[in-house]
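Before a colleague's protein record goes any further, I have to sign it off. Would you go through it and say whether the fold makes sense for this chain? Take the sequence as given and treat only the tokens as open to question. The record follows directly below this note.
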Amino acid sequence: MSAYTYWNDLQVLNNILNKFKQPPVVEFNNTRENDDLKETIDILIDEFVFSNFKEYKFENFEQQIYQYISANIDELCNFQLEDSDINIHELIMDGIHCYFMRNKTPRSYSDTRLVTSINKEKVDELFEYYKTKEQPEQRTDEWYQFRYGGLTASSIYKSIDTEASVNAIICSKCKPLKKQTGVNIESPFHNGHKYEPLSILIYEKEYDTIVEDFGCITHRTIPFIRASPDGINTKRDNPRYGRMLEVKNPVSREIIGIPKKAYWVQMQIQMEVWDLNECDFLETSFKEYENEEAFAEDGNTWNYTKDNKKKGAMMMINDGIEPIYIYAPLHIDNKSDWDEWEQAYLEKMESKYSWIKTIYWKLNHYSCVLVPRNNNWFTSVFPEMKNCWDTILKERITGFEHRKPKKRNKKSTKKLTPNSLQKLHNDTQKLGFDDNSSIENGTIVIKIRTQSFNEDTSEQPST
């Protein structure tokens, strides 16, 4: 009897695959499991936020939350989600959005919405208090001393940033007080000086409000923190009454509606110092026309372009010290009214002013988003601010030189001369290399091979 079993000797196998039932796809939608997952996401968001208040200042704060949740969901629920048709990305994004809308604590909103009702009586009291605060006149000795005596909202972010930033703000505050002189009209700073008032005029018209400047004041209980917002809404019957305004006019930076770290910190400090809970962050970019003809050709109306962007004009005058900008009223919508307004202003202009030119502009980009006050964030970072200021006071006496950036020693570079090239030629000849160079009349001529080795068919192997 053969010890082998042949294929033909095997019995026919029954197909039992159909007897196995495929496990059902887990449907999360409209199920308890789906609700449990949403609750888990909400708990994880809350856990991250309350453990990382300091991270609020970063533009990618929500991205940090997303990564934290995603990693935890993978670890906790991956075995369940593999067989489901759930879109975990959308669920996490919706969870983050709902969390911040429900708690009214986003880093910033996507627009300038109305979120809370106004306590007008409290705002009234604050305005009366602001009027009692001493306001040194700008660029006077008292004004410079006032700013030197504390950390202002525009630069205080450095005190809670990298070691290099902390060293930079300590050095700047320890150096002898230096007054600014001269004006560079091409600088980004001057671009803000030129277009910030115009941006505020557009904001006022857009929301039927009035914005007033209250100057720079000191925190009620923290004397080293000072802040000066660009303005505060003061029209009492407007729903934005008491809301602060911060304006930026970037020259080249793209406007995306998300406050940069330094700007977000600046607004938080402003709200803390002025004890207000909301700040509109307004960003605008303008383009200037080459001349009046180019301005007139862009659009069928005086104050709107072909693509329906706002446009207008301003006068640049000088008082003998610095340029001053006079903005035409935004309601002017024809050249005749503009000419009449311009002529009337020039006639009443005092002799100490001289007309420089008329600037024609168009509003290229406009973004306005609401930034809410975050008390928890301020509480979490205040010890670092206090430590920085204490260090400044100390090192104004003991010295701060050790914080200055270390100068890098420049590597010495030897210039090539005919003699050095001659030596190089002789040395390579001694080594037995033919560098394919020649010396003619004391001038080094280097012959460069211009043909690729791959192009030289004589050097390619035959196939």
Notes: The chain has a mean pLDDT of 85. Residues 22-103 form one domain. The CA atoms of residues 15 and 21 lie 14 Å apart. Residues 375-398 form the longest helix (24 residues).
